[in-house]
Amino acid sequence: MMNYVLEEVKNSEEKRYGVAFDIGTTTVVGYLWNLSENQMVDMLADTNPQSRFGADVISRINCADRNPENLREMQRLIIRCCNKMLDTFSQNMKVERDWIRKAAVVGNTTMSHLFLGMDPSMLASFPFQPAFKGPIIKTAEEMELHMNDSAEIFVLPNIAGHVGSDIVGVMIASGIKKKQGINLVIDIGTNGEIVLNGKGRILACSTAAGPAFEGARIYRGMRASDGAIERVKIDGGKLGIEVIGGKAPKGICGSGLIDAVAMMLNAGILNSKGNLISKEEALQKGIHNDLINRLRTGVRGNEFILSWRDEGEDIVINQKDIREVQLAKGAIYAGILVLLECLGQEVSKIDEILLAGAFGSYIDVKSALRIGLLPDVNEERIQHIGNAAGTGAGMMLLSEEAKRDAILLAGEVEHIELALQPDFEKQFLTGMYFPQD
Prior knowledge:
Layout: E1 17-23, E2 27-34, E3 39-47, H1 57-66, H2 68-93, E4 100-107, H3 109-116, E5 136-139, H4 140-143, E6 152-155, H5 165-174, E7 183-187, E8 192-198, E9 201-207, E10 228-235, E11 238-243, E12 251-252, H6 254-267, H7 279-285, H8 289-292, E13 295-298, E14 301-307, E15 315-318, H9 319-343, E16 352-356, H10 365-371, E17 382-384, H11 388-398, H12 400-412, E18 414-415, H13 424-431
Parallel strand pairs: 1-4, 4-6, 7-16, 9-18, 10-12, 16-17
Antiparallel strand pairs: 1-2, 2-3, 5-6, 7-8, 8-9, 10-11, 13-14, 14-15
Helix pairs in contact: 1-2, 5-11, 5-12, 6-10, 9-13, 11-12
C-alpha cells in the first residue's frame, strides 16, 4: 500500500522515533515507528476511556455541550490514554521519551475535536459544521504528551462533520485515487465510513452504524480480546466456536457476532425479518435437536445459546442483539447504495471492495455477504486491508509527500450527507432485512 518514497535518514546514529495514533470512538490504537529504519516496531490497543461519557459520538458531543468541564475531562482522558501507550512503548522497546520526535493522529471528526479540546457541539445538528477541518499542527509540550517537548503533533485533516481524518488515512494507505474502475472502501466501526471512487470522482459518507460490531450494546458483547468468541460455525446441526486466546468464552466480539447471525440464518433459526424462532417453531421446522436445545425464552425474549457456562450467565444472542445488528448493517448497506446512486452506478459495476479497520480485517467475507452487510458481489472482489487508518497515519510520519497528498485529497472528496438524500431512509429500511437464502 505504501507507494511513497520515504525520507532519507540524515544521521543514522541519531535515534528517532514517531508514533501514529488512530483514535476510534470505541478503541484507540497506537503504533511506534523507528524513523531511523522506517520500520513499525510495536503496536498497542486500548478501550477509549471517553466511553464513560457515552458509547457513540453524539452522546459525547452532548456531554461536552452541557458542561465545558466534560469537554476538558474527555480531552484529559484521551491524552492520558495516549500517554499510557507512550510510556509502555518506552518501557517495552527501551525508547527514551526525547527520542520520540513526531506523532500523527487520525480519528473521526468528533474524536479529533476531543483530542484537541475543541468544542464539538456544532457536530450534533445539521449542517454538522466542524470547528476545524485541518490539518492542525501542535507540539508535544502543548498537548502534554510524553514525547520530546518539541515533537510535531500532526492531526490529519477532516472532510466533513462526520467524515474524519481516519478515512483520509485509509484513502492514502489504500491508494484508492490511483485505482481504475469502481472501487469501494468501507471502514466498519462505530461510525461506518464509506468511500466510492470512480469516473474521476471520490465520494464519501458516514453512517451511524453504532458500536454493535465492536461488542457494545450487545448483551454478551465484548472487545476482541482473550475470551471473546470470534468465530461461529454450524455444520450438520452441530455448533462450534473459536475463542480468542483459546480460553473459556466470556462473551462475543464483532466477527463472532456476524458469523453467528449468518449461521443462524442458514440453519433457519433466524428469518429474513430478523425474528428468532421459538423452540416450538424449530420443532415444527425439523431443526436439528442440538440447535433446538439452544433455543429458549428468557427475560429478554427469545435467545440462542452459544455457550453454556457452569458459573455465571450463559453466552447467548437475544432478539435485541439481532436488532442491533440489523440497524448497523442496514445503515452501512444504505450508505453504499446511496453513493452508488450519486455516481450513477449499480452494485454489479463494483470492481473491488476494500474492508478497512482492525475489525474489518477479521470479518469472514462469506458471513458478511450472507447477512447483507456487504453488496452482493463475487467474493474474490473483496479484500481486507487491515487498519488502514493507522497505516495512513504512519505514512505521515515517514513522508512529507504523503502529508501533502492527504491535505489535497481531503479537499477533493465530495461529501454526501445521507440525511439529505431522498432514498436513504427507504434504502436503510430495506437494508435491515436479511437476504433470502
